[in-house]
Amino acid sequence: MGANASTLLDDDITEIVASSSFSKEEIEQLYGRFQKLDRNGSGTIDASEFLMIPELAMNPLVPRVVQLFDGVNFKEFVRLLSAFGKSAPRETRIDFLFRFYDVDGDGAVSESDVCSIFRLLVGDNLDDTTVRRIVRQAMLDFGAGVEPLSETDGNESADSGNFRCRPLTREDFCRKLQQVELDRILQISI
Prior knowledge:
single chain; mainly alpha; two-stranded antiparallel sheet; calcium ion binding
C-alpha cells in the first residue's frame, strides 16, 4: 500500500485483518474514515486532522490520545484503534492503556504520568497539591508501592508525605488490570 494510495489492495486488507481485531468490512470502513480525516492526502493523519473526529471533540483526554495517533499512516491507525475493536485481545487493550498512561514513554507509569492525565480531566479546577494527593491515593489504592523521595528521606514514614508511589512497570500494570473488564470500557463502533 503506497503512502498516498486511494484504494486498499486485497493483500493489504488480508495483512491488516491478520494483525488487528477488525474484519475485512471494518477495515474497509476504517479506510474510508481514514481518507476523510487525511484531508491533505499525505497518507498520514496529523494531530489537527485527528481532532476532526466528532466523537472526540468534547473528550478532555483527546490531547493525550492525539499524541499517540499524531503522524500515523493507515496501518498504524488500525493498529492503534485495534485496542477498541469488539474482538480485541486483552493484551492489545492493556498495551494501549499502558502507552496512554506512560506519558513520558519511559516504560513505567509514574505519579507524574498519572498527574498529567488527571490534569487533562480536571483542567485548572484543582491546584497541583490536590492533584498530586488524589493521584497518589489512587495509585496506592491501585496497589503501587511506596519509596522515599530521596536517599536522605529514607527513614521517613509513608505517613509523613516524604514518599512517592513506586512507578508501575508494564508487568505490574498488566497484573493490576487482570480483574478489570476492559472489553466494556475500551470499545468503539466502526
